[in-house]
Prior knowledge:
The complex is a heterodimer of chains A (116) and B (115).
Chain A: E1 4-5, E2 10-14, E3 19-25, E4 32-38, E5 45-51, E6 56-59, E7 62-67, E8 72-77, E9 86-93, E10 105-106, E11 110-115
Parallel strand pairs in A: 2-11
Antiparallel strand pairs in A: 1-3, 3-8, 4-5, 4-9, 6-7, 7-8, 9-10, 9-11
Chain B: E1 5-7, E2 10-13, E3 19-24, E4 31-37, E5 44-50, E6 53-57, E7 65-68, E8 75-79, E9 88-95, E10 105-106, E11 110-114
Parallel strand pairs in B: 2-11
Antiparallel strand pairs in B: 1-3, 3-8, 4-5, 4-9, 5-6, 7-8, 9-10, 9-11
Amino acid sequence: DQQVKQNSPSLSVQEGRISILNCDYTNSMFDYFLWYKKYPAEGPTFLISISSIKDKNEDGRFTVFLNKSAKHLSLHIVPSQPGDSAVYFCALYINAGGTSYGKLTFGQGTILTVHP
Amino acid sequence: DTGVSQDPRHKITKRGQNVTFRCDPISEHNRLYWYRQTLGQGPEFLTYFQNEAQLEKSRLLSDRFSAERPKGSFSTLEIQRTEQGDSAMYLCASSPMGFSGNTIYFGEGSWLTVV
């Protein structure tokens, strides 16, 4: 069973416009939500996170929104740049009262292409 | 370079052969993880070490897979009697004891192709 889904395999955006990447989950136990960026032939690198006590977290051009009732999170990139072209994964974990470790459940990924 | 390093980066093997991958984590990280990523999918958790103790194994880790971290530093992942379905990228990651999402670091992965 797929607990975390990214239903858009790919997204194409013009430079300077907004990119919106989406992620849906089924397990309400997840309480920490991450976005990773991955370039070809490299491992995933951490981008931004949000905990379940918040509904928005912003870091520069990147903003993550969390809708717990809908079990949905999204990543907004504004303005998009060609260097943002990569695969983006959402990854979730259960904090378990602070005893968590790096057992992440990833979505399938969305390939973002930003055209100049 | 003080990141997570993996070796080899690429391995092509014949079905039925054994392969071993090595991971050197960030030196001060107590925790080490193995993930597997197949084409079109996100990474999937395989196993987790805290120092030398293997504390969790996914059901994805069949009997043909074994992972070790003998001295709490580097780790090896061995696949015996490889099958074509084992073709994937094997990712290693490490984190300190005080885990949060931005403290886990992934290596560049080891690509396995079984022919």
